[in-house]
Amino acid sequence: LKDEPERCVAASWDSGTPGGTIVDLDVVAEDRAGLLADVLSVLANEKRSPMKVEAGVSAGNTAHIYLRLAVTGQSDLEALREAIRRVPGVGDVLRAGKNASRGRASA
Tens of pLDDT along 90-103? Predict the structure, then answer.
């Protein structure tokens, strides 16, 4: 490239998804009627459309709502996590899946 600098082109990585990076979240909460509707309402209020939603209840009445959606960066992710945490009964919102950093989005 030193001899032919005109052959050098600028390049950048593309997330492959319009709107940002895909993240998987695990919303951990005490199960109750309306919990899923309340979490999805937060997403709607934040103008988010989840790509995947899966919900279940484990032993001890603990609900897990798995969400896949796009975020534009770490601050966007943290703001969304905080909004979901304000739903009554939600204990935590964790990163899940292969893109998770040690299973949690923050310390």
Answer: 999 999 976 554 34
Two tokens, residue 100: 């998770």
> DSSP letter at 20?
S
Tell me the Cα Rg of the chain.
18
Interhelix angle 74-85/35-45, nearest 10 degrees:
140
Q: Are 105 and 81 in contact (CB under 8 A)?
A: yes
Closest alpha carbon to 27 in 41, 17, 13: 41
Neighbours of 102 (CB within 10 A): 7
Which pairs from 31-34 meet CB under 8 Å and 24+ separation?
A: 31/57, 31/61, 31/62, 31/63, 31/89, 32/63, 32/88, 32/89
26-74 pLDDT tens trace: 999 999 999 999 999 999 999 999 999 999 999 899 999 999 999 999 9
Contact 79, 88 (CB under 8 A): no
